[in-house]
Amino acid sequence: MSPWAIALIIYSSLALLSFLPVLRVLVRWVDLNPGGPSFDQSPHFSDDGKLLLAQNFERMQGTLKFWKTQAERYRTFHIYSLAWISLSTVGVPLLAQATTEDPWSKWLLTVVATHSAVLLAVSRAFRVEAHYKAFRSGESEFYDLYRRMLDRPRVFGPDQHEQIDRYFENVETVRRVVRSAETDNFPSVEDAQGTAVLRTDSQSSQSGTRQQ
């Protein structure tokens, strides 16, 4: 068997095997970590205050799970894309110089370049890194508020009523910011057109390489 064919099999196998952890994250939901003592055990609030805060936190559970799952999905795909795009950035120029008349060498160059182009196109069109930062920041901001309300409720106001109202306002702000970031980062028609152009350019460069 041609050494180029063996190299192609090795590259394809590694690309597929390293994508399996990404695929596993993409198809499952991430569980929230245990948070420790919550509002129902806090000495800072009355029974009515504890009930309001506990109900608000329960309503946030679905949102937090969604944020954490989305952040993990985008993070995992971003790491996978970054690793393979970095490797192909170095590998494609070297392969272009090393290709021979063996058709397997040209197939290897084509597969490596196409794999990188697809990952780059998807990352840009769906703004993977920006989505990861938005969801991760939203999750962190909420838990910062949550811990601050548990440990130092007086930073939200002098009395319980004001503390709870201000805490709820801050939680709503975090949700609004994350929702706005998610909407702004959602791919548009222009992004899809740019992705198509990127793929076309990549295919043209590969065709030019093969002709040479």
**Number of E-type strands:** 0
- Biggest sheet statistics: none
Distance between the termini: 25 Å
β-strand amount: under 5%
Write down the Rg.
Answer: 25 Å
Spans of at least 5 consecutive residues whose pLDDT stays below 50 are 195-212
Element order: H for helix, E for strand: HHHHHH
Mean pLDDT: 86
Give me a quick take on this structure:
This protein is mostly helical and 212 residues long. The chain has helices at residues 3-26, 47-98, 103-125, 128-151, 160-184, 189-211.
Kindly list the characteristics that best describe this protein.
212 residues; mainly alpha; 6 helices
Report what the structure shows:
- The protein is mainly α and 212 residues long.
- It is 81% helix and 0% strand.
- The protein contains six helices and no strands.
- The chain has helices at residues 3-26, 47-98, 103-125, 128-151, 160-184, 189-211.
- Helix 1 packs antiparallel against helix 2, helix 1 (3-26) packs parallel to helix 3 and helix 2 (47-98) packs parallel to helix 5.
- The radius of gyration is 25 Å and the shape is elongated.
